[in-house]
Amino acid sequence: MDKFTRNQRISIITKTLIENPNKVINLNTFTELFSAAKSTISEDLYVIKDILSRLKLGGVETISGAAGGVKYVCGLSEEKSMEFANRLCGILADKDRVIPGNFLYVTDIMCNPQIISTAGIILASKFIGNNVDYVVTVETKGIPLAYEVAKLLGVQLVVVRRDTKITEGSTLSINYVSGSTGRIQSMTLSKKSLKKGSNCVFIDDFMKAGGTAKGIIDLLREFECQLVGIGVLIDTVSTQKKLIKEYVSIVNFNGFDEDGNAVLMPTKDFI
Amino acid sequence: MDKFTRNQRISIITKTLIENPNKVINLNTFTELFSAAKSTISEDLYVIKDILSRLKLGGVETISGAAGGVKYVCGLSEEKSMEFANRLCGILADKDRVIPGNFLYVTDIMCNPQIISTAGIILASKFIGNNVDYVVTVETKGIPLAYEVAKLLGVQLVVVRRDTKITEGSTLSINYVSGSTGRIQSMTLSKKSLKKGSNCVFIDDFMKAGGTAKGIIDLLREFECQLVGIGVLIDTVSTQKKLIKEYVSIVNFNGFDEDGNAVLMPTKDFI
Known about the structure:
27% strand, 12 strands, homodimer, two-stranded antiparallel sheet, Arc Repressor Mutant, subunit A, alpha/beta, 35% helix, Rossmann fold, six-stranded mixed sheet, 8 helices
């Protein structure tokens, strides 16, 4: 039987935890893999837990009982979160991002794994205690961010579509009024998507007036599910009347100044 | 100054590498973080590299020169890849997945982070040597898988849209013929999305006749970019005439048998 040193075990245990966020891993997984005693693995885990907490890079939680084990919970220090939000403001302020109609081009950012994975950690850590069952988003731009948050919360992602597709089976559709344009839009979701009574978090790229979020609440109600949190990358603060009051954002976008520069800053108290 | 033990350093270095796949990390990042000598960090890295390679869980590569450092390259053992493909066939064979029109419902699978992250590792490891600049997909179902592959290859994701959006700025559109339905469809992509002369990998949920993949090749040609690989989760082998010959898939879907059961098996030689 192969022997493993503590260093080797710690590297593999760290990798396994990081790759399975918020999922309880039974200690037997490690005792069997390494042919090691439970007490040995517990000592390894203590080292990992201790250093992650010291560097504020997330935590390791122990769950007792028959279905017990350990799980990794993502996290980022206040300092690193603020550094990220400031860097993001800098990237978003690039003049080339202003497109006709006074929109901010963010497609590349929403598809940049390095940015989205950090944003995902910041948003997921807000909802970690909410017993979340699903992360919900509306196609298309918010999908990578919503996927990251779902992965970090250890739950399924649900993508609401704009129209019905034959590959979705029976669907449920609702109409809602877009808060910023006032137009009626529809959203549709496969009947198979959500279990009754589930807790859902809504993740999107932008929060403007909140019409989409309100639509999501209505849609979830049809599935007898509750919305327990909303997280967006960018909050458009220049939109006066918000249909939704409570949500988390990382960056505030306050329109354009007289020279046509986007006015951006980290959201107050987002950490 | 805080001191760190080898165990602690190995845990944090492992986490940093895993969270930044295929990205070169300069050794100074670690020597500064731990106030340790380069030789010490090199020894730490040797332990990580050695155990990952022994358990076939990916690799650590050293890049020399001024811009040098180390990077983590994802990987999964043949045994685990086959185990995953077999498990996926079992999940897909569920009778509840058959929807009117003889389609297989896969939306939940394409949005399941645990499944998609493993599928992402299998597909990304096929393209790791291809100098990939972008991972491209077409909205909507393939986005999470394409995002995972992009993240694991350390590159940007690009999502081709079905129609033009005002938030995309100037776009380039093409029409193409769907290989399975024969209908004319269009795809559109923001002009800002791709740099000339880039190498792209196309990732999607299904490969039927290959019409979408052919459309992607045409679209990339308009951007003066090359397609260097195609990866899908499921290959519909019952579609006789394929417009595309070379691609990687994990599972073969061979239609339904007389009792209406989906016929599925791991793709031959996919490992």
